């Protein structure tokens, strides 16, 4: 079967010799864009779960969440290797001493790596030094930064609370320490044209980051986007539009940048629209068919410094 993009699953399988399964964790973090440090309102697209899948209550310790997750995945898939994923809210938003206590709970048997979801304005050299200290014994240690767009006008509109320069600095400091860096982007944000989204692809393509997670703008219950959608102020792409846009986006990325997600969908019970979003494997299949129709793939239109 043709390889149209560099998938995260294949990358980890090549790295560790077999399929690696992700265990999502909630360490009880908050977010400076919710607790008042930046604002009380959060990003306009983010719901009360903080993008968490809600598999386990955060009343369980990290070790208990891991053990529970590993047991369930082992029973279902006979899995042997696992990646600990700190997913909910901003997972570097505590003092270094407390972060160390949290991260130290991760490396039990069969955990081959750790991925930490956070904001670029919530890291500093001490925190990144701590994360880098776990990067030995061929572990996969990754930090994921929500950026969503490279355009400051968009970041202001969606109430991110930081600018693109902040993201660039966080990436530089992370790469200096040998950390894998993954960026989150959202396609279809308010006010963004197709050209704006392609500029995000071109800019990120030349930053030397390792991976990317691509999300479709979704209307989640109780968010500012939900309010704007009800007022008729939000346009959502159709499935065909999204597939075409994703392929355009991937064609501009380096062929070796790891594609870790092609459509985040949120929890079904909290998602208002789009109704077509949610069947990830079907959507990936349709994206691959579009690449086949075009006779292109990830990286087909990539060029260094094509800004």
Task: Provide structural commentary.
The structure is a single chain. With 307 residues, the protein is an alpha/beta fold. The protein has a single domain, classed as pyruvate-formate lyase- activating enzyme (Alpha-Beta Horseshoe). Helices cover 35% and strands 17% of the residues. The protein contains 10 helices and 9 strands. It has helices at residues 8-16, 62-77, 96-103, 125-132, 152-157, 164-176, 194-205, 224-230, 239-251, 280-294, and strands at residues 20-25, 81-86, 111-118, 140-148, 180-187, 211-216, 219-220, 258-261, 271-273. It has a 7-stranded parallel sheet with strand order 1-2-3-4-5-6-8, with helices on both faces. Helix 7 runs parallel beside helix 9 (239-251) and helix 9 packs across helix 10. The radius of gyration is 19 Å and the shape is globular. It starts with 7 loop residues before the first helix and ends in a 13-residue tail after the last helix. The mean pLDDT is 91.
Write a concise keyword list for the protein shown above.
307 residues, alpha/beta, pyruvate-formate lyase- activating enzyme, 7-stranded parallel beta sheet
- Side by side, the strands of the main sheet go 1-2-3-4-5-6-8
> Given the helix and strand composition, which structural class is it?
alpha/beta
- Note the beta-strand portion: 15-25%
E-strand count: 9
Number of domains: 1
Spans of at least 5 consecutive residues with low confidence: none
Sheet with the most strands?
A: 7 strands, parallel
Alpha plus pi helix count: 10
